[in-house]
């Protein structure tokens, strides 16, 4: 059939396609194509410094292999849907995510120059375990040999990063996901918000991602608890849900909501 299959004899042998062999063009159904297109369109929403030309070329390749009906539907989505980031800060390059992803997979140490929140620049060797994206920022979770403990590093604060030849032995008992959630939600966040929505639980679950916080049915509605380091963003997010709610904590959230209302009023009064 002309397909290069290579075999290795012996107890640990097996068969595989030759490295670099290109399979025939892939075919997607409409739902699969829409999922891929939304992922590409959401690259800016993920706060990754990805080239727009690369995204457009990938979209073009996908639409070329679709049947006519599916092609028209996908083109409609790509031309009408815009997913914009809510922050205007420096974003990590996609190449940095790829580099760190490869280092995590191969268990390869990386050397970084890292600028802390207090503006201290340090050089560290890190054993990388995982990457975490959270509300407009990306973090690397790993073991820092300088601090001799597990740490999280914001990617936009990494000034120089390159992999080393040295490899590390992974601690299989360390759960980087649980570590990241605990750190980002409880340590990094400045505010713990609790509100009660005047809505059915089934309805609000469709609007609030599970990763944002916890939803619990209570007397009078649904309690929502989540953590954030930006109270103004929290106020905008809650108002954007367009669901009546009662503020339980913190009291500073009420002031953030009043400030948001005043800004809206000033905009409405501009002639």
Please render the helix and strand layout as text.
Layout: E1 5-8, E2 14-17, H1 30-41, H2 52-64, H3 68-80, H4 94-106, E3 108-115, E4 121-134, E5 137-144, E6 149-154, E7 158-167, H5 176-188, E8 191-197, H6 201-205, E9 214-218, E10 221-228, H7 231-240, E11 245-249, H8 252-269
Helix pairs in contact: 1-2, 1-3, 7-8
Describe the structure.
By secondary structure, the chain is of the alpha+beta class. The chain folds into three domains: 26-85, no CATH class; 94-188, SH3 type barrels (Roll), CATH 2.30.30.520; 191-265, 2-Layer Sandwich (Alpha-Beta Plaits). It is 36% helix and 29% strand. The protein has helices at 30-41, 52-64, 68-80, 94-106, 176-188, 201-205, 231-240, 252-269, and strands spanning 5-8, 14-17, 108-115, 121-134, 137-144, 149-154, 158-167, 191-197, 214-218, 221-228, 245-249. A hairpin with a 2-residue loop joins strand 9 (214-218) and strand 10. The radius of gyration is 24 Å and the shape is globular.
């Amino acid at each position: 059939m002309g397909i290069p299959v290579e075999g290795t004899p012996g107890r640990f042998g097996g068969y595989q396609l030759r490295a670099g062999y290109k399979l025939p063009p892939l075919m997607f159904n409409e739902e699969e194509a829409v999922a891929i297109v939304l992922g590409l369109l959401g690259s800016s929403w993920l706060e990754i410094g990805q080239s727009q030309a690369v995204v457009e070329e990938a979209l073009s390749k996908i639409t070329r292999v679709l049947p006519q009906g599916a092609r028209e539907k996908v083109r409609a989505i790509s031309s009408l849907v815009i997913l914009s980031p809510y922050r205007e800060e420096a974003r990590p390059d996609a190449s940095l995510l790829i580099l760190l992803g490869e280092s995590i997979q191969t268990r390869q140490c990386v050397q970084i120059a890292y600028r802390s929140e207090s503006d201290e620049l340090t050089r560290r060797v890190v054993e990388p375990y995982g990457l975490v994206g959270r509300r407009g920022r990306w973090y690397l979770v790993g073991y820092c040999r300088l601090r001799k403990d597990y740490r999280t590093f914001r990617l936009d604060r990494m000034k120089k990063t390159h992999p080393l030849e040295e490899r590390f032995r992974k601690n299989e008992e360390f759960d980087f996901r649980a570590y990241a959630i605990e750190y980002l939600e409880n340590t990094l966040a400045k505010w713990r918000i609790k509100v009660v929505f005047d809505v059915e639980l089934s309805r609000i679950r469709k609007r609030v991602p599970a990763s944002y916080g916890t939803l619990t049915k209570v007397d009078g509605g649904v309690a929502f608890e989540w953590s954030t380091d930006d109270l103004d963003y929290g106020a905008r997010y809650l108002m954007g849900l367009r669901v009546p709610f009662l503020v339980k904590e913190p009291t500073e959230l009420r002031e953030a909501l009043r400030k948001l209302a005043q800004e809206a009023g000033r905009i409405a009064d501009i002639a």
